[in-house]
Amino acid sequence: MAPVDDHPHAPTPPAAGEAVGELADGTAVRRHTLDSGAGLVVRVLTYGGIVQSVEAPDRDGRQANVALGLAGLDDYVRDNRPYFGAVIGRYANRIAGGRFELDGRAYRVPVNNPPNSLHGGTEGFDKRVWTARATGGDGGGPVALELAYTSPDGEMGYPGTLAVRVRYSVTPANELRIDYRATTDAATVVNLTNHSYFNLAGEAAGDIGDHRLQVEADHFTPTDATSIPTGEVAPVAGTPFDFTSPRPIGERIDSDDEQLAFGGGYDHNYVVRRPPGERGLVRAALVTDPASGRALEVLTTEPAVQLYSGNQLDGTLAGPGGAAYGPRTGFALETQHFPDSPNQPGFPSTVLRPGQVLASTTVYRFSVSG
Q1: What is the pTM of this model?
Q2: Which end of the chain, N or C, is less surrounded by CB atoms within 10 Å?
């Protein structure tokens, strides 16, 4: 698949950001626009680091927003239960029972997805205002927005003061690149991701069941009824979780399968296939929409990706144009470490210590097919 524009224009320098409102405490929130010059236009809020929209062309060059989002700041502050577009931290996904031990000490974090903690707790990174610095364009490299937030020791129960930077950049190849960096002054656990939902037919285009998905994973981590991994790393072969070759997302989503019943569809962590010793970017997934021709390739340095098929969207939230988001009207591919890793010694560690640097990258590459 080729980029949409084989002769892309120079990226447009990012503006300083437009004011979109204030929080109750008077904190100002701005929106920044990143334009690749080749059709990809991404808008990011400083509130939650939220990717509010992602415009991309279809096979005929028609632009559409392919990311699920809400109309304005007040909507996100009032109710963003699905975490549309947000930076997630300190710990993406779930921690069993809202508790873990680190270096012999027990920690409690908020239970906001009973009986577990989800996506950093009741006031996670998705609800913080990030400082922003825009760079690039006019020959100065990819247009980018660097967001920064310092999470104080004890915030949401997590130890250590954590300094986080998240850099969004767009390229003439119609890529949205997300670079994460974090340091701490005391041992802590960290798992960062972005929670964008996509519908490649357009954010108000209905069910994503016809989208064809390939996941570069031979194994996934089964869960209990509360979506906490059992500790098993199970093969996908012979199950509805096998997307090693392209299949429609909706083809087997309602199969008589205990794991699908637990999540009401797909809400599971896949172990990304990676050559031995390879620590760089590898492809985690490819999604195509046959109707529009749009394709989304996900590359990451992370060990896993969570496939979520929008099962809990219930029609109570609507997009900028007023269309309600019903069940399965968007999918998420959240690059990450495994859920509940602080309580699962067999999983890759999410512990970060002083002197260490958490550094990871995820790329969402948009293209079209015939």
Answers
A1: 0.94
A2: C
